[in-house]
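Incident review: delayed structure delivery

Summary: a single-chain prediction request sat in the queue longer than the usual turnaround. Root cause was a stuck worker, restarted by the on-call engineer. No data loss occurred. The affected request and its eventual output are reproduced below so the record is complete for anyone auditing the incident later.

Affected input:
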Amino acid sequence: MNNAVTSRLFDVSSNNNISHRAERRLAFQSTVDRFLCFLRRRTTVSTAKLSEQTLGVLREFCNSFPFVITEDGDFSNKVSALDLQSLVAYIKRMGHEFEMAQPLEVIPANVVRNFLFRIRNLLHTDMSKDVSIGSSLNMSGSLPNIKKELFSTNNDVLQYEESFGALSNKLLSILNEVKEDELVCQDSEFSMSVYDSIAEKSDTTVSYGDVIMTAGHSETVLRFLESCSERNIHVVVVELSPTNSGSLMACRLRELKIGCTLVPDASVHILMSKISKVIIGAHAIDCTGGILSNSGVMNICASAELKSVPVVVVGASIKLTPTFVQSHFQKNSILSPSSIVNPEDEKIFANIEAIHSSYDFVPPKYITLYVTNDPSDFCFGPTDVYRKMASIYHFDDWDLARV
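Output delivered after worker restart:
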């Protein structure tokens, strides 16, 4: 009788454990689904908000990943090589889903890539210290080679000498490092650190009395110019029709008591001979050193090259994206032409094809200098972009679809 009662109680406890694991998995999956729906809606949000939301999803994963990648979800169990492989593969698949949900938004996928880069560095360090294997293991090679050796050994022999709970705490600390070092977040403490680290590099980038041209509104460019306000600079703001976001930029510069002039897009080439340098922001920076920026920026950069005016791109290093953009339409969004052509004019619509794109792709030959928040480099040229990406992303994570 006692045995029957004990058996029945054990079954109930087991069912409760299974139910708890299922609830944790469903809760995390619902968090991911909500974020994917947000990306698919293509809602225009700032880099700060998008990075903060991506970090929130990753933080939820760090708190519940044993329930997601293992069967028992016990935080006290030791982490095996297979668990580590599942951890990295799951995060890559999650990043690929973010990328596919909104291909034009590079921030979520890049946050995942940088998170994986730091995880791989942590595992490389910890494995070289704590892994005990029956056979010899060469830890001097690259991490992919070490992984092949680790995962080809017997999982019963190899044990990563740490519990799921300890690894979860380490992953959370890595997320905090990502937030501090790489991202523009809503928290004023961290956002100031990113903007300030970029603005500090204006000392040798902007000279006294410079006449600077910029295009549209960019918070990063605004903070960068604010740090130069005591150098008697004058800013020429291109309005970037039809969005006219330059009007907002001009108003904010006026509030900072920085001299500025708002000009239409058509006058860029005429005024370029009086410009000292062009400073613009970027939506994304690709492997070749080219950028995706607001529609109309390509016209400014082409005119600057013709007049031998340097073009400086400022932005957070998390915008460095390991993709190869080779044409204007490869990574772009086509909007309704009604804002640039009157749809009631039948003669115009009968004779032309109106293309209204969200972004311009600017090839690297038009870019002179990049200024980011990376403290290890003052600034760098387009030929150094590939090297910079290798310092914040692991090559295995450039293509998140390849698990």
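Verification: Residues 1-15, 130-159, 184-190 have pLDDT under 50 and may be disordered.
Action items: add queue-age alerting; document worker restart procedure.
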